[in-house]
Amino acid sequence: MPEARDVLAQKHLSEVSKDEFATYLQVQLLTLQLNEAFS
């Protein structure tokens, strides 16, 4: 159900500042890279 996920994402974004969201994305990217490096 992408619609529900989109609604949740919009709600989340509206409650989080852009800087915090950017930091969150950076952490997600780092985690992905680390997982690939150690897999």
Q: What report would you give on this structure?
A:
- This protein has one domain.
- Helix content is about 90%, strand content about 0%.
- It has helices at about 1-15, 20-39.
- The model has no long low-confidence stretch (mean pLDDT about 85).
Task: For this entry, give a set of tags.
39 residues; mainly alpha; flat
Q: What's a quick, concise take on this entry?
A:
Helix content is 90%, strand content 0%.
Break the fold down into its secondary structure elements and pairings:
Elements: H1 2-15, H2 18-38
Radius of gyration: 13 Å
Beta content comes to: under 5%
Shape: flat
Structural class given helices, strands, pairing? mainly alpha
